[in-house]
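Q: Hi! First time doing this. I have a protein sequence and I read that you can turn it into a structure. Is that right? Here it is:
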Amino acid sequence: MKAKKVLLDILGYISLWGPYPDVDTENISNNIKVLKRTPWFQALMNDEKYRELIVYDKDVRYKIGYPNTERLKRNAHKKRYKKKIQKVLEKKHKHLSKI
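A: Yes, that's right. Below is the predicted 3D structure, encoded as structure tokens:
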């Protein structure tokens, strides 16, 4: 993740977009509060295998905290947020199942 951020920061400065945004616990907490209002996220939280990943896994939490909270409030029902979160959850769950 760090190498990806450094590369995106460099590209951001070169292209004048600005640096790649950091994700902190406040972003994650705010986005989880918004997502808890959606039925698809509630279903994920009720599934124990995914709940553990949502609460403790840093990559999953990064993916949850990355979207802009205000934009997420208006569009939490959008399929793209659901797809991104489910994709990282499935990837992590498969990885843990192999161990």
